[in-house]
Amino acid sequence: MRIVSSLLASLLILAPLAAAHAGCSRTIRVPAAPTGASVIISDEDVSGAIPDALRELGARMGCTFEFPVMPRARLTYQFMQSREADVLVPASRTPERDRDAMFIPMMKWKVELITVRQRAIRADSVGELLAQKKLMGVAVRSYAFGNEYNALLRELEAQQRIHYVNDLVTAGRLLRAGRADFTINVPPLFLSALQGAADMDGIGADLAFQPLAGMPMTESGAYISRRSLPPADQRTLRTLFAALGKGVLWRHFNKYYSPEQLAYAIVPR
Fold this sequence. Notes:
The chain is an alpha+beta fold. The protein contains eleven helices and 13 strands. A four-stranded antiparallel sheet has the order 5-12-6-13, with helices on both faces. A three-stranded antiparallel sheet has the order 10-7-11. The protein has a two-stranded parallel ribbon with strand order 1-4. Helix 2 packs across helix 10. The longest helix is centred in the C-terminal third of the chain and has 26 residues, at 231-256.
């Protein structure tokens, strides 16, 4: 019933939008890296909740998207430095990104401490985690979950207690092998990424998740470049992504994530 209500609400939103906008002036470049079930990569095929929702809404508003596949660090470089990318999504908000791009919030995710259950860590806060000097963390390069997360990574770097890897599956492998003691991530994104790897079979039952005081929910959305796109396209995409967060995206999330996983998310009402 909830999905049907979201669909009806989405159609009511989309009808006037399609009439009010002539569409995008060119194909919009949205580089893609694996991000759980939000962005799924199979060879060069890109699917998942976000690409599927973009294609649906783009068709209604006259915008075409391309999703070149690349590692997350290169994706961030193309958006922030080389100006080859028009949109960064999904993305958490940071002051650095705000200087050159327009942020459109779409949802919030709970960020938690993730460990292997047999080697579970007793840490109820960021301070308690930092105080345990022997524990080693792992994080994906270029992931950002807000200022508090970034500050934690800087402190772990200063203590030489963090491994950086290119993707979530590699992070899961380090945890399972005991080469890292913990990671900080959004549990549904982390689990849905690992479920696609053959050597991660059964990993969900092996992991423990716990909230950390001092690590708030992270705001997730899309960044639209002010440097690569003309003003008219910026306005069209701003309207498109605002509509995406009001029903369309949530409907696609329901296709890819279980209700238990979506309990970690808050979306606009």
